[in-house]
Design a protein that fits this description.
Helices cover about 80% and strands about 0% of the residues. By secondary structure, the chain is mostly helical. Helix 2 crosses helix 3.
Length: about 140
C-alpha cells in the first residue's frame, strides 16, 4: 500500500509540475528574451522548466511525511504505524497537490523578483544609451 501511495504522489506531483511549467512557458520565455536578448535565453527557459519540475516533485513527494506509514515515530515508544485508509489517501493526494504548487510558487516568486531587478537594470542601460546617442558631439 505504501509503494502505491509513493507512486501516486510522484505521478501527481510530476503532473502538476508539468502543467505549471507549460502554463508559465510563454511568460518566462518573453521575460528572458527581453532581459537576455540572445539565443542563450532559450537555454535558460529550458533550465527553468527543469527547475519547476524538480522543485515541484521534491515539494510534492514528502518522503519524511510518508515514512509514518512504514515506521513508527522514533520519539514515541508507544507509537504505531499509521494505517492508510481512504480518508488518508484523499488527504495525502490533497497535500501533494498543495505542496507541489507551494514549492513552485516560491520558485517562481524568486525568479520573477530577480527578473524584475534585471529588467530595471536593462531598461536603465537602454535609456542611458539612448540619452548618450541623442547628445551631439562637439
Amino acid at each position: 500500500m505504501f509503494i502505491s501511495l509513493l507512486v501516486v504522489t510522484l505521478f501527481i506531483a510530476l503532473s502538476v509540475a508539468v502543467i505549471v511549467s507549460w502554463v508559465f512557458n510563454k511568460p518566462v520565455s518573453n521575460i528572458l528574451n527581453r532581459i537576455i536578448a540572445d539565443e542563450i535565453s532559450s537555454a535558460w527557459v529550458k533550465y527553468l522548466k527543469f527547475a519547476i519540475i524538480v522543485v515541484g516533485i521534491s515539494s510534492g513527494v514528502r518522503i519524511y511525511d510518508l515514512e509514518r506509514y512504514i515506521t513508527p515515530q522514533a520519539y514515541d515508544k508507544d507509537a504505531k504505524i499509521l494505517i492508510l485508509t481512504s480518508e488518508r489517501w484523499i488527504l495525502e493526494v490533497y497535500r501533494t497537490i498543495i505542496e507541489t504548487l507551494q514549492g513552485i510558487a516560491w520558485l517562481l516568486l524568486v525568479f520573477f523578483a530577480v527578473a524584475l531587478i534585471a529588467y530595471v537594470i536593462v531598461r536603465m542601460s537602454e535609456l542611458k544609451r539612448t540619452r548618450n546617442a541623442d547628445i551631439p558631439k562637439a
